[in-house]
Amino acid sequence: MRHGSGAISLTGYSSAAGLVGFGCHCGILDPVKYDVLIIGAGLNGMSLALALAGAGRQVAVLDARAAPAAVTPAADAPFDTRIYAIGPASAAWLDIPKVWNALDPSRIAPVYDMQVYGDSARDQVPSLALSAYRAGIGELCTIVEERELARVLASAAQFAARLTIVRPATAERLQLDADAARVVLADGSMLEADLVVAADGARSWARAAAGIAVDTIDYRQTAIVANFECARPHHNCAAQWFRREAGGGSGILAYLPLPGSRISIVWSVATDEALRLTALDMPQFAERVAAAGMDSLGFLVPAGARAAFNLVNQRARQLAAPRFALVGDAAHVLHPLAGQGLNLGFGDCAELFAKLQGVPDCGDIRVLRAYERARKAALADMHFVTHGLARLFDSPHPALTALRNMGLNLAGRLPVLPQLIVRTATGGQFRG
User: Fold this and answer.
1) Using an 8 Å Cβ cutoff, are 7 and 158 in contact?
2) What is the DSSP letter of 153?
């Protein structure tokens, strides 16, 4: 029978026939079958689970981690090093399970403008300026911490009917049959569903278990992230510099506004240059960051530790199989220069959610192929932009240097193009 409980953590269960869960009304042990089983309890997996459960589906989420402690950061607490630029389309997606407006307003920052500088810039004039006001939208994006997004999703899950979270649990075997999908856990118990969704990240166990291959490009670059207090106000304006680093390699530095006088930075450089930068102590690193950003915000004071991660481009060769679908980083990983990784993941979730509306069998391959077709165009476009720009600005050839900076300057001077870029990047429709 179908499970009808609210969000709970199942521990210590076992069944020779399959998973046994607790019914919310009477506590009687019953065999469980779900409409959708989501592997991975990150931002993509939890948002999709909440939306589907709210639409009447019986949903389970498999989480390898123990239940997190419920913590609400104080307004003056240090900000996460992992932050996201959430576009309007993603905000609309998070509004379906009613979590967007639950974000603590003291922990988020709207971005109204963005300035982009080419690597031949010698002054403070941006090659390309993007404006929410000129594009006719409220903001380009909203900067949100991963921790704050996770908090509101977890809070909503506590009160969600038809949602079960199985944790901590480790999946060991995936079986995709004509009648159902089945996941065998490390303790020998089994979860069964019409559809399994892989939302377990770039190194997805579920994707590998389904036999779906990935194509990977190693950029041999590292992104360094850190937060700073600024001497000058940022006016909710983001900035990005395409740079030629001291060693001759390329670099991309982004300033993203946080609440108050704080910013978060993402500095993508060749891995050997990243090692030199991370070997600096934080005050020295702050000086380098300020200089690389043309001292546009004055003196920078470190506001927490820094972190670093290697950059790759990764794309799954298919997004769907019978009774199986991929979303988020399990499906695609992009260069962070456009800040669209999580937005694309939420786009996957929104599209899959829409395709499953009113469908009797969530694992119907015709529905899943329709989802795959709908997402491939958007993913191809963003891959073209991010990978193309990363490669274009990685080349030191003088002709390419002149061409790419000419292109940025031309885009900035044509009155229609900046607004079109904004509309495309935020998921809106361009009105001209």
Assistant:
1) yes
2) H
On the question of a cis peptide bond just before residue 31, with omega within 30 degrees of 0, the verdict is no
Is residue 309 within 8 A of residue 373, CB to CB? The reply is no
Q: Specify whether the CB–CB gap between 128 and 115 falls below 8 A.
A: yes
Answering whether pTM is above 0.70, one says: yes
What DSSP designation does 115 have?
A: E
Distance CA 59, CA 53 (A): 6
Within 10 Å of residue 384's Cβ, how many Cβ atoms? 10
Determine whether 288 is exposed, middle or buried from the number of CB atoms within 10 Å of its CB (0-12, 13-18, 19+): middle
CB within 8 Å of 262: residues ≥ 6 apart: 79, 227, 228, 229, 230, 303
At CA 202, angle to CA 357 and CA 83, rounded to 5? 85
Q: Answer yes or no: are the C-beta atoms of 347 and 257 closer than 8 Å.
A: no
β-strands 190-198, 250-257 pairing: unpaired
Scored b (16 or more CB within 10 A) or e, 174-201 reads bebeeebbbbbbeeebbbbbbbbbbbbb
Looking at residue 107, the DSSP 8-state letter turns out to be: G
Parallel, antiparallel or unpaired: strands 59-62 and 214-230: unpaired
Amino acid 119 reads D
Burial of 71 (0-12, 13-18, 19+ CB in 10 A): exposed
**DSSP state at residue 64:** S
**pLDDT digit string, tens, across residues 292-342:** 999 999 999 999 999 999 988 889 999 999 999 999 999 998 776 655 779
Q: Find the largest Cα–Cα distance for the chain.
A: 73
Dihedral sign for Cα 284, 289, 295, 297, please. negative
The length of the chain is 432
Closest listed residue to residue 156, CA positions, set 199, 94, 86, 87: 94
Please tell me what DSSP assigns to residue 150: H
Q: Are strands 190-198 and 34-39 parallel, antiparallel or unpaired?
A: parallel
pLDDT in tens, 360-376: 999 999 999 999 999 98
